[in-house]
Amino acid sequence: MATKPRFDELAELDRLIHEPARLSILTALSACRSADFLYLQRLTGLSKGNLSSHLAKLEEGGLVRVEKEFVGKIPVTRLALTRLGRAGIERHWQRLEALRQHALVWHPEV
Amino acid sequence: MQTVDQRRLERIRSVTDNYFFWQGLRLVPMGAALLVVGLRWTPWWPLVDPWNDLVLIFVLAIGLTASWAIGSSYRRTFGDVRARPGVHERRDTLKWLVVYPAMVGALVIDGIVRPAVFVTGPVWGAATVAYWWSTGRGRPHYLVAAALFSIYGFLPMFGLYPSGVAAISPFFALLGVVYMVGGVLDHFELKRLLGPVPPDGDQTTV
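^ inputs. structure came back:
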């Protein structure tokens, strides 16, 4: 018997998280306590303006916390996941993994 | 439309988690220092006392200072990542309780017993694989380095090289070369993931 695909789950994936640049940002932040703006910029390849825009959306969604600090006289913007953000990205990864597993065993019904 | 590349995401996660270890150029001055230390007890060493100890201390001090300075340069060029505290407790425990004692133990065995095989080679090769495995994998040159160390260790079995104390000093020189080459290759891998900063005003969709 063919396994039913769970493509309906695709629609449930959080769009705020699933957008590729934001998913890269959240994935990186899930692997550390915090990262600065420059690291995320180099990681995503986004311009300052675009990265700021993505971060603003993530901050509005309560997924990311933005902190400003000074290293010597240079202002540095640091980003960290909130508790909600950490839970959200972990749940998202689990869903992606579940979908991947289903896609591996799925055969279309003839 | 951009798609989610799961392998890239996994690489992002592992590199961010092990950012310190991927800053390869930090290893280069340490490798140069190890190379000098390794050559110290070989026939190719050109200096005589009282310069020997002074030169070794100087080279190690320069190596550590340069490595620290390169770390600062990475922060300015590629950005800064703060690690999650306590996440790698298991790795640290294994490192201090198993890997380091095994590495020192192998050196002691080679120094005292002089077995048919240069034990330090395969043991440090295994330690290199453990390092590669626990710091985000990816960089295949560490597997090549591990193989090199192991081959070096088995050379005495075939009469191709001395074992025991005589093999330790050249081994450290080899280690220094591996640090330097591995460090440069680590750096290239990091650069591949962390691309250049694009100019403002590009048209990437938000």
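The helical segments of chain B are 6-17, 19-22, 27-40, 51-78, 89-112, 120-134, 141-154, 165-193. Chain B has eight helices and one strand.
thumbs up if we can close this ticket
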